[in-house]
Design goal:
The chain is about 75% helix and about 0% strand.
Length: about 100
């Protein structure tokens, strides 16, 4: 699946939630939930937005990290999504001067 198809699939209702159900990283899921709340979006909407932002704004080093990470994984799709979400969360946390949802 190419990135454009992946992004389009995320926009289908429930599709992003299905991807997240496969994510074993509970910390990442909690950060996503908090970030979605701050953005006043569902987690699925936040995921879709995060992937689009990565595709449009990530630098060359970020893309190289993505290619390197996914080339070594048994599940490159999950690895790709996790890396993109972590990137978006770092961007949002930097903008908010700390972890999203931090007290």
């Amino acid at each position: 699946m190419v990135l454009g198809e992946f992004i389009r699939d995320l926009s289908q209702k429930g599709r992003a939630d299905a991807f997240l159900a496969l994510c074993p990283d509970l910390t990442l899921l909690a950060r996503l939930d908090a970030a979605a709340g701050v953005a006043e979006e569902t987690v699925g909407e936040y995921v879709e937005s995060a992937v689009r932002r990565f595709a449009n704004q990530a630098g060359d080093e970020d893309w190289l990290a993505l290619v390197n990470a996914t080339s070594r994984e048994r599940d490159p799709g999950r690895s790709c999504l996790t890396l993109m979400l972590a990137w978006a969360l770092r961007q949002d946390e930097a903008r908010n001067e700390g972890p999203v949802g931090a007290i």
